[in-house]
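Reply to dn_fold:

You asked what the input looked like. This is it:
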Amino acid sequence: MSRLTIGIVDYGVGNLASVSRSLNSMGYRSRVSSDKSVLSNTDLILLPGVGAFPAAMQALHENAMVDFLQMQFRQGKPMVGICLGMQLLADTSIEKRHTAGLGLIPGEVLPLQELDLHIGWNTIEVLDQDSILKPSDGQAVYFNHSYVLHTPKEYQIAVSRHRPTSPSFTVAVRKDNVVGLQFHPEKSQTIGRKLLSHVIEELCNA
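and this is what came back:
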């Protein structure tokens, strides 16, 4: 059986080398590219991202990626967004200013409550209605963010909390062929790599 090929969107925002190395170590082929013909000829598209929402969306527009990613979603291409890449899947964000996102996952990106920054290791609670993250329920993964995606419950597949008694916030979402992960699986050691591999396999074999 041939290895799956993952297309990593290169739009000048994100830790591309780290993601690519992680995927290669997991046995996948990775193609880091801003060429739409290269990305469309992969098994799954991965959207990374670090930094601020408005700058990232501007970069996507400048690289003619917005319409392309929306079209790939409509055509059923498996897609994964990581960290800021997950937030970019949303309808809008208020980070710095009101900015339209890709509109693939209904919802709005808003500041974290209780903390200005959620950084470090924290456990995830996988919600019952979705099984794609079930093997990772209760495991700790690495976070680094100050905004979160507020989305209807039907799209939430995992949450986390600052403290056991704190309100939960969404850290993983899914709509059809698209999954968003607020945490960094590529920085979450063996647990993160297993989680990401499971998501990729489930999406590509759905």
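Residues 89 and 104 are 5 Å apart (CA to CA).
Hope that clears it up.
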